């Protein structure tokens, strides 16, 4: 085993603090990664504060991991020392269920193993990317193309695939009108990816304060949802609405913006329950759906797509000592658009 420095939450809602953790010895099919950058995802905060339910502590968050391979097990065939790689939201699955065999490991019927706040199939807790190194089975590692700098690539491992997967599944592309609700860590990448796919893209944000950024990053239109006229003007407009916000929405209002057979897909996960009048979906044969990250093959596809189209996250690079301040700023929507930790500072 290897002792490495990390930042961990010792208990729910407690400030994160520097500590050390043990990483397992490299097994036959394992890859040891020297982490260079780790993104801060809003889901890190939800879990560290037990907003989504009881969690495992001490917790080392972080599932947007970018780094370089420093050791491989004797059975590894996909990677070698020096490769630029990433790790996203999961580090294992059962690998034999119907979904895993289809490349949908994120929907493993036995439950995938989260990169942190989970118990692995070896019975040991998993620790995430706010650390210097991580050991992961090669089948849950992806290659980061040379065309994407590692710092702006890190958020693609969660925010990128979380938006790419539903956009592809619901066929965003030429001739399709796509709205992205929320223009933050997920939303700004949703806009970039939907634009690169060829869709006509609209941002639906609470205010217009980020309008210039939205238009610069690929949006064709930008509307404030705080203005009631927005819902009147855009009624029946969109083929697909991708909601990236982690707060409860008036689902009926947003469903009214869909065309017949349109879909409202949620990738943001509020801590509170939401309500729905079913007539909002019955009228117009509309779909209310959800989507969670993507499988390993699709994550690699997303990275290759982003490299081809010059897509990376818009980031604020921070030192590890600024993590707690960054958490506060994320909750205040005061980041443009993803905090990334320089793990050399841990």
Automatic annotation (TrEMBL):
| Enzyme Commission number(s) | 1.1.1.2
Q: Name one GO molecular function term.
A: zinc ion binding
What keywords is this UniProt entry annotated with?
Metal-binding, Oxidoreductase, Zinc
- Residue ranges annotated as transmembrane are none
The UniProt entry, under Gene3D superfamilies, shows: Medium-chain alcohol dehydrogenases, catalytic domain, NAD(P)-binding Rossmann-like Domain
Domain named Enoyl reductase (ER): which ranges?
A: 14-341
Q: Which Pfam families match?
A: ADH_N, ADH_zinc_N
Does the record carry Zinc as a key word? yes
Broad class of enzyme this protein falls into: oxidoreductase
**Entry keyword Transcription:** no
Please give the PROSITE patterns that the UniProt record associates with this protein. Answer: ADH_ZINC
Which domain of life does this protein belong to?
Bacteria
Q: Which cofactor does it need?
A: Zn(2+)
The reaction(s) catalysed by this protein are: a primary alcohol + NADP(+) = an aldehyde + NADPH + H(+)
* CDD domains assigned: CAD1 (cd05283)
Report the family membership: Belongs to the zinc-containing alcohol dehydrogenase family.
- What's the name of the protein? alcohol dehydrogenase (NADP(+))
Q: Which organism is it from?
A: Streptomyces griseoviridis
